[in-house]
Fold this sequence. Notes:
Rossmann fold; 10 helices
Amino acid sequence: MIELKHISKTYNRDSAAAVTALDDISLSLPEKSFTVVVGSNGSGKSTLLNVLAGTVRPDAGTILINGKDVTSLPDYKRSRWIARIFQNPLLGTSPELTVLENFRLASLRTQPKKFIIGTGDKFKKLVKEKINVLGLGLENKLDQPMGTLSGGQRQALTLLMAVMPGQMNAATGDGPGILLMDEPTAALDPKTSALILDISGRIINEFELTVLFVTHHLKDALNYGNRILSMSGGKIDLDLDQLAKSKLTLPEVYEWFE
């Protein structure tokens, strides 16, 4: 369960350029729910994700994850519970490192860091098995630098790495249960976007993740998730559950932005 209580954030406070990104936001996201957030540029969508991830500190309010107050925790400490996929496929990976080395770093994200990374045969076999489910042939490119892959390939691998601690520790259930998706298909072509969303759906269902998915693609807002939030001016102006969402048509959703 994620709870945001009276969250506010203003950039450039006390200046003529002040911008209110979040205005007294209160929101509850039940465990295993899939919430889609839509809104025009500057509506507060990305700031909402940044505040939850811990990369932006709110000016006021409280953030609870499973009842624990994480408001003052930085992003690297919240990674125990939260994984994130960015809009830019170049983010979230180290281009100079190989695919295997990237996966090893991801697997250690919530663990105490050591100087010896360790990418032995056992780990390599495990990563190959995980990547094989993508059906992209990337399991045969473990020794290839991540930066040489296409944007779609990197985004697909980033999805797997985002939940890597949970995959590596499936027996104990120790790993992120929350996935933040910040327009993960914005930089991809339509065919690759559809593939990434399909892969996302499989991973989300397999690990029963709680998802907050920001998108500009209104069709995706209708097709994915069980709840739609529409933001404007730092506020949530529409909150539609599965039943209400199912009755919407795409033209009606477009009217929100007129």
